[in-house]
Amino acid sequence: MAQTDERLGAPGGDLGGAAASGIGTLYGIGAGPGDPELLTLKGYRLLRACPVIAYPKKRMGSRSYALDIVEAYVNPEEKTMLGLVFPMTRDPDVLRREWDHTAQLLLEHLLAGRDVAFVTEGDPLLYSTFIHMARVLHEHAPEVQTVAIPGVSSVNGGAARLGLPLADGDEVVAIVPATGDMERMKAAIEGHDCVVFLKVAKVLDRMIHLLETMDLLGQARVISRATSGEEEIWEDVRALRGAKLNYLTLMVVRRR
Ligand SMILES: C[S@@+](CC[C@H](N)C(=O)[O-])C[C@H]1O[C@@H](n2cnc3c(N)ncnc32)[C@H](O)[C@@H]1O
Predict the structure, then answer these.
(1) Is 98 found in the same domain as 57?
(2) Residues of the chain by 3-state class (helix, strand, coil), percent to 5
(3) Tens digit of pLDDT for each residue in 140-161?
(4) 250 C-alpha to center of ligand 1: Å?
(5) 70 is a domain residue
(6) Residue 18: what pLDDT?
(7) Which residues span the domain enclosing 212?
(8) pLDDT tens digits along 67-125
(9) Ligand 1 pocket test, candidate residues 37, 88, 154, 228, most atoms within 8 A of CB
């Protein structure tokens, strides 16, 4: 089934694309938030079955959080391990060149009939590089299938570890990427019973200040690397003023 920008991932997700068409399938496998036991059985089965394991990393030689989660299930000697560096720049020319290059690395395997498991932290369809990767791949080779295998997101993993319901009864919950636009952050809090702020580390001080002005400091919790062996939790966000936290940090603000 051909994929469109709006629809990443065919129903099912069984291996078989390569056998039927001679072209491999790209599986975006949600590795979950950190605890290897939170990988789904389907994700596990596909990791074992795919001959190529692709994983995102910040730069050459750096570790990959997503790969760390699943590494106990993958024997690198039996697989082709494909570390993909995703550009952090905003320069559109550099971005285009780097994404095209990464697509070519994947297509070498896919067009040779090899299925590729692309592991992503959390869920592959929630603010994940897999979303854009699948789009770029589709531009290069529309015949290649991309299939998303859901994972436990950091939102779910974080809420579970914090012991906070995301939504109960008729409550409304929002997932918001935190930015410097504090009016927007304020509106998100005012418009929902519970807000999960992702990518919060870079605007932590401003978020704490906002919560203070809204008299909600006591309603916020912060968690880094939820469910992993390196997890950290802050019940009192005032302790985080001036702190530099890991990128893998989220904040839950629950008003009720
Ligand atoms: C690009 S988004 C990826 C979200 C991911 N696809 C998911 O389903 O959770 C990255 C942001 O997700 C949050 N995040 C991802 N993994 C996390 C974890 N284990 N613990 C806390 N926050 C996490 C952080 O806010 C981070 O800045």
Answers:
(1) yes
(2) 40, 20, 40
(3) 999 999 999 999 999 999 999 9
(4) 7
(5) yes
(6) 54
(7) 154-254
(8) 999 999 999 999 999 999 987 788 989 889 999 999 999 999 999 999 999 999 999 99
(9) 154
Longest dimension (CA), the chain: 60
Answer whether residue 12 shows pLDDT above 50.
no
**Do 142 and 176 fall within a single domain?**
no
Q: Do the domain assignments include residue 8?
A: no
Number of domains comprising the chain: 2
Distance 143 CA to ligand 1 centre (A): 31
Q: Verify whether ligand 1 is closer than 6 Å to residue 156 (CB atom).
A: no
Residue nearest to atom 14 of ligand 1 (CA): 248
Last residue of a domain, one of 132, 149, 166: 149
Query: How far is the centre of ligand 1, averaged over its atoms, from the C-alpha of 249 (Å)?
Result: 7
Bigger pLDDT: 3 vs 94:
94
Closest residue by CA, ligand 1 atom 19? 225
Query: What are the tokens at 70?
Result: 């699943």
For atom 7 of ligand 1, the residue with the nearest CA is: 122
Kindly report the number of other CB atoms within 10 A of residue 218's CB atom. 11
Domain CATH for 240: 3.30.950.10
